[in-house]
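QA checklist item 7 of 12: single-chain prediction sanity check.
[x] sequence parsed
[x] length recorded as 179
[x] structure emitted
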Amino acid sequence: MLFRVRRANLNDISNVKLFYKEALPLINSEQTSWIPDIYPNVVDALEAILHEEFFICIDNQEKVVGSMILNQQSDDEYKTVPWVYGTNKANHLIVHTLISHPKRLKNGIASKMISFIKQWAIENNMASIKLDTLANNVPARKLYEKNGFSYIGRRYLSSFDNKGTDDCVFYQFQLYKEK
């Protein structure tokens, strides 16, 4: 099956809502620490659509099978990570809530999305791509490493319900060397 990634627009809202309704309850919260209706949630997705930061992966029947938010916003904890690339205030792309439908795993959706992220970052003159995941999210870590991301470090981040911390690992993909 062929997949295509593109920026979501207002016409995609009902399909994004359906995707979140179908996919999020099936995601292993122990691997992601995501909390239903808290993070990720439809309101944040809709806001990202309005800011032109929400991207979807669709199949050949136009069904949403993956989504992600791409921007340059990061939590304060990101500043404490010993990033290898981009210490001179270059532009860096941050990947948030990369989701591929749990019923469609092993179909290449996440890899297609990672390829898109790399191309988008190049086209938008980013120095690197940064992201994080839970330390015990082995499938995500394997995906990032398989796609050339370098393990950068480990930190505890505030949990999405602000009731504790999550053990997270950080990855970075270098696009351009700094001058």
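[x] summary fact logged: The longest strand covers residues 165-174.
[ ] second reviewer sign-off
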